[in-house]
Amino acid sequence: MDTTLDGKADMANPSYQAFQILRIAFTVAPIIAGADKFTHLLVNWDQYLPAFVNNMLGGHGHQFMMVAGVIEILAGIGVFLKPKIFAYVVSLWLVLIIINLLLIPGYFDVALRDLGLALGALALGRLSERF
Predict the structure, then answer these.
(1) Which of 37, 91, 95, 115 pairs as cysteine with 121 (C-beta 3.0–4.6 A)?
(2) Taking a C-beta distance cutoff of 8 angstroms, is the pair 79, 23 a contact?
(3) pTM value?
(4) For residues 37 and 45, is the Cβ–Cβ distance under 8 A?
(5) What residues contact residue 22 under an 8 Å CB cut-off, 6+ apart?
(6) Could you tell me the CA-to-CA distances from 1 to 26, 59, 125 in Å, in that order?
(7) Number of domains within the chain
(8) How confident is the model over 93-119, as pLDDT tens digits?
């Protein structure tokens, strides 16, 4: 860990600041997105599930998305508590979301955005090795 002589994190260190910014972002964003799977205040998340997946789930795609919401909330809490582990979990989760989005025509732009987020979560994981 980058520290000062008294053992506290150096708040002026740009790397530490980047770590904290990413940690906050990947705590808050998954929790908000996960909670919104239940409220649909931001978007109807069910539209991001390919129809054939909904059919494979026996028409229970909405319930599946609610389970995904719980996973996202837990991942966000995990990033706050243990970023060294959960940053990689969030990055992998985003890669799975990208694969899902590539199965739906018209959402390639969202998949590209999520690639940037996955790389950001990966960067948080790498920074977590130091802080």
Answers:
(1) 91
(2) yes
(3) 0.89
(4) yes
(5) 87, 120, 121, 123, 124, 127
(6) 20, 49, 14
(7) 1
(8) 999 999 999 999 999 999 999 999 999
